[in-house]
């Protein structure tokens, strides 16, 4: 795990949740908790037509145990074990709206991937755009990280709109950059650097 991850962590105060907590007044990003498993499972199962179209892991076979294991892995990642540093996107009532995370760190190039999804019943409300801006602004404060990439299937217009509204710039259409449901897919590659968030 690159130094950038540790730079994003708050001071160690003996807390059980080490991930950053970010808030813009309407939406909040926080670490996943073990008791989020049922909400995560329900969110994904309601979203097969949208999230499931673009993410092969979002399928009817996704179980409550899968949710529990993924939450455990992402909590470890914020402690430096693994690569999936994810945060829950929640509303003012702390209801799970979606997820956002940093992964595929390339410390030699001071860059990482930024990915997100929003449950089907809460799409179109601005949560993803706000989450991208909050996490990108927070992450790009550290000198070890100078670039975030958002890679979306070229036909995933909803995800591409989020990237554009958040201020990311389209850099290319990369041929067969992704594999979705076993098939190669062209991808739109967006990037965020510090100046994009002014």
UniProtKB/TrEMBL annotation:
PROSITE patterns per the UniProt record, alphabetical: GNAT
Residue intervals of the N-acetyltransferase domain: 27-196
Gene Ontology CC annotations of this record: cytoplasm
Domain of life of the native organism: Bacteria
Keywords, in A-Z order: Transferase
Pfam family name, one: Acetyltransf_3
A GO molecular function held by the record: protein N-terminal-serine acetyltransferase activity
UniProt entry tagged with the keyword Transcription regulation: no
InterPro entries for the chain: Acyl_CoA_acyltransferase, GNAT_dom, Ribosomal_N-acetyltransferase
Record has Transferase as a keyword: yes
Protein name as it appears in the record: N-acetyltransferase
């Amino acid at each position: 795990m690159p130094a950038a991850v540790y730079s994003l962590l708050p001071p160690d105060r003996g807390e059980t949740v080490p991930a950053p907590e970010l808030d813009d007044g309407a939406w909040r990003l926080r670490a996943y908790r073990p008791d989020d498993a049922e909400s995560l499972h329900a969110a994904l199962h309601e979203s097969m037509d949208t999230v499931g179209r673009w993410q092969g892991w979002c399928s009817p076979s996704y179980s409550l145990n899968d949710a529990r294991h993924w939450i455990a892995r992402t909590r470890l990642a914020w402690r430096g074990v693994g690569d999936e540093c994810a945060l829950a996107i929640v509303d003012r009532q702390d209801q799970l709206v979606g997820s956002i995370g940093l992964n595929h760190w390339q410390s030699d190039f001071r860059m990482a991937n930024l990915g997100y999804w929003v449950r089907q019943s809460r799409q179109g409300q601005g949560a993803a755009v706000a989450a991208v801006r909050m996490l990108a602004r927070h992450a790009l404060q550290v000198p070890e990280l100078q670039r975030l990439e958002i890679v979306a299937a070229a036909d995933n217009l909803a995800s591409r709109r989020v990237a554009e509204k958040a201020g990311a710039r389209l850099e290319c259409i990369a041929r067969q950059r992704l594999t979705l449901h076993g098939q190669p897919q062209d991808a739109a590659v967006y990037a965020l650097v510090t100046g994009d968030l002014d």
